[in-house]
Each structure stands twice: as C-alpha cells, then as structure tokens.
Write a structure and sequence with these properties.
Layout lengths: L1 H41 L3 H10 L44 H10 L5 H9 L11 E2 L14 E2 L10 E2 L6 E2 L1 H16 L6 E3 L4 H11 L17 E4 L14 H9 L5 E3 L6 H4 L7 E4 L2 H8 L6 H7 L3 H11 L1
Parallel strand pairs: 1-2
Antiparallel strand pairs: 3-4, 5-6, 6-8, 7-8
Helix pairs in contact: 3-4, 4-10
The structure holds zinc ion (ZN).
The site of zinc ion has 6 residues, from strand 6.
Length: 324
Amino acid sequence: MRRRRGLEKSQIVVFIILAAALIGVTVWAVLIVVEGFRMNENTPPAQELVDNALATPSPVPTVTPIPAASPTPSPTPTPEPTPEPVNPFLAFAFSASEKLEMYERFHARYPNLAYDEVVWKVNAGLYYAHFENPQIHDLAELHPLVVNPFFRLHDDFEPHALVQIPGLHFRVTPETLTAFNAKNEAAREAGHTLQVISTYRDIAHQRRLWNASGDGAVARPGHSEHHTGRAIDYGDGAGGFLDIRTATPMGRWLADNAHRFGFILRYTEENTHITGFISEPWHFTYVGYEIANAMFYGAYESLEEYTGRNPDAQARFTRHILAQ
Ligand SMILES: [Zn+2]
C-alpha cells in the first residue's frame, strides 16, 4: 500500500508537471491567437485597402504654392531685332548709299566737317578739286542748272529756248525773261534803271573770252553760267560792272529784291571756295522763287549747297521746265 502510495506520489508529480506544461503551452497558444486577432482588427484586409485607394484619391500633398518669382507682369519680351547701326553718313534723306565710300574718304580728308556737310559737299561734286574731274550734265535741262568747276555743259549744249530781251540784243531763256521783266518793272517803279551788260553766251563766244583771259576772270568753256541763258550781268551805268556792295541805291535795291523774282547773287565772297569764282557782285542767276527765297534767308550759302542737300529737286524741276 505504501509503495503504491509512493508510486502514486511520483505519478502525481509527473502529472502536475505535465499538466502545468500543458497549461503553459495552452496559455501561450491562446496569447498568440489573441494577439493575431488584435493585429487583424487594426490592419484592414487587403481588399479593403484596394477599395479605399480607389475611392478616396490619395490626399493631394498640399504643395505650398511657390510665390511667382516676379509677380510684376513682365512686359511681353518682344524679340527686338538687333537694330542695324545707322551709318552716320547715310542718316540723311539726301545721302546716297553708293557714295558712302566717297563720304568716308572726304571726311578723312576734312575730319572737322559735320556729317551733313560732308554728304552735301560730296553730292555737289566737291570731292574733287576744281576742274579735276568735271562731270558733264547728263540731262541738258536741269533746273536749277549748276555749272561750276565740278559740272560742265556739253559742248553741244543749247538752252531749250532763247528769247530776246525787248529793246536789247541780249537773249535769255523764256522763264528768265519773264522773271527779269517783272523785276525790271519793280525796279523802275522804285526809281531805278537796270542796265544789262551780258546774258547768254554760246560756247564759241566763251572760248574766245577764255583764250584771251584764261582762268580767273573768265569761266572755262562749258563751265560758264552764261551758257545756260539764265545769268544776267548788270552794269553800273558808267561803263563798269555793278557792285551791289557799294551801297548805291540801285545796288541796294537789287540786293534786297532780286530773290523776290527768283534771282540769286550767284558768286559771293563766302562761297568763292565752293564756286571757284571770285565774288561777282553783278552776276545774278535765275533759279526760281523757291530756291532764291531760301538762299536769301540763309538756308543755303550757295547753289551747290542747295543741290547737294536736295539732290532730287533737279529732276523735279526738269519735268517742270520741259512741261512748259
Ligand atoms: Zn556773269
């Protein structure tokens, strides 16, 4: 019985140990299962995740709006074509691009000249020295017709028409006579008698004069304004040339009024370096009221300057003359 009890005791111990182990394992298992349920509760099933993703768009990450770098409305940057630098000689309406090289060379020779002076002087032929390279007018009837050391008339040049001054053996072009008659009448009303001593000379006449005198006092054949039929020399009434500078009443009247009838004092002391002629205070040339008036009030110092600054005017006047 004792033994049996002893055995029974050890069996009980083993049983208890086994039972305890069993309980431990069971509790451990239960804990694991419980923990698993907990995790399942917190973690939505996969399908639920997918559904959520489709239903609610992933919240847009609020990007802090970057303030526009320059809130000022930048003016639309018009792509400006890089402007061609304007050549200083070609900046004038009276420039001729084909003469650019001459402008530049002339300016190199006279660096103190203003650009516009360079342009009109080259236009007027002053690039060359007097008589160095005289051009022959390709149009016989220009108006104004500039005849000087740079431009000459063809040997065969004849004015488009010549008419005689009434009562005199002198001839001029018709428009010159019309202007002269008006001027003569106004002079008479002012108490003056104009004395004409020279007008048109043909080239043979001019050649005889030049052969006798040479350069200085007489223009070379082809270079004389008297060949154009538009120039008139006045006498002083005592056998000599008139000198409007001597302040005789008639001289003063001519100096003050000739422009009103389209005449200019062609050769002055101021423009001798351009015209190549000494001052001739008796030689008036018909150029029309517009030019004569502009020159009288100082817009141009010489007829050369007028044509150099108005290179297109000559052709216009040519048409005007030919239409008459
Ligand atoms: Zn003359």
